[in-house]
Amino acid sequence: MWDNLSNKVILVTGAGAGIGQALVQQLAKAGATVIAVARNEQQLQELVAFDKVHIKPLLLDVADWDNVHKVLSKQVPQLDGLVNNAGVAIIKPFEQLSESDFDTHFDVNIKAVFSVTQALLPKLRDGASIVNVSSIAASRSFAGHTAYSATKAAVDSLTKSLALELGPRRIRVNSVNPTVVLTRMGRDNWSEPSKSGPLLAHIPLNRFCEVHEVTDAIGYLLSDKSSFVNGHHINLEGGYSVS
User: Fold this and answer.
1) Where is the signal peptide (predicted)?
2) CA of 22: how far to CAs of 35, 89, 117, 134, in Å?
3) pLDDT, tens digit, for every residue of 179-237?
């Protein structure tokens, strides 16, 4: 699968840490040219130190609509793939969520996906693949995830709409929808058994998702191995949805 991505050009947002960082590194190992988009310069420098040949850093706040269109239209080459990975999660009870919390969720988790994809449409080659990083929270409810879940449901809806609209150009659009992913932040946030236990009890495999399981799914969707997969949401949740 990964060797199928050598010599391709792929842009990844939210590249500085977690899933995005791991994906950029894996794509670079596979021989792809990766445009790594993040708003933290130090994180981008660390990625470049990992591979100066294949990783091209791009400092950009994807929540800034005007700058996204300006920068991406001028600084990005023709692309074979786009991964909309940037995201935020402010977990609070519904009654405690502020207007700022609401706006931050929607600005990053859905408006940025919309604006980045729109800005890059002229750069996407016919036959390219777009992968949106969504969440099982798009279709299942979790306490404290009200705003987050709403944005991920919007991402899933956008994924289907774009799969329809971009189909004539043979551009495929899909999403990956994991449950808790054991990034460094994920391990910190879900290490307490009293918190993780009730959720794990609903997952038949009795564990959370590893980072490589998300990047492998993204790699599949970016590759020609998934050439007839379009408009789908790949749930990475160990059977949670059937429990």
Assistant:
1) none
2) 14, 19, 21, 17
3) 999 998 888 878 889 889 999 999 999 999 999 999 999 999 999 999 999 999 999 99
Would you name the residues annotated as active-site residues? Answer: 148, 152
Q: Are 207 and 185 in contact (CB under 8 A)?
A: no
CATH number at residue 95: 3.40.50.720
Number of domains in the chain: 1
Segment 32-44, tens digit of pLDDT: 999 999 999 999 9
Q: Is the pLDDT of residue 3 over 90?
A: no
pLDDT in tens, 12-29: 999 999 999 999 999 999
Domain containing 155 equals 2-242
- Asked if 148 contacts 89 with a C-beta cutoff of 8 angstroms, the reply is yes
Contacts of 46 (CB under 8 A, 6+ apart): none
Q: Which of 119, 146, 147, 116 is nearest to 131 (CA)?
A: 116
- Give the pair of three-digit tokens for residue 125: 């080659």
Residue carrying structure tokens 């990034």: 183
What is the spatial distance between Cα 62 and Cα 91, in angstroms, rounded to a whole number?
A: 21
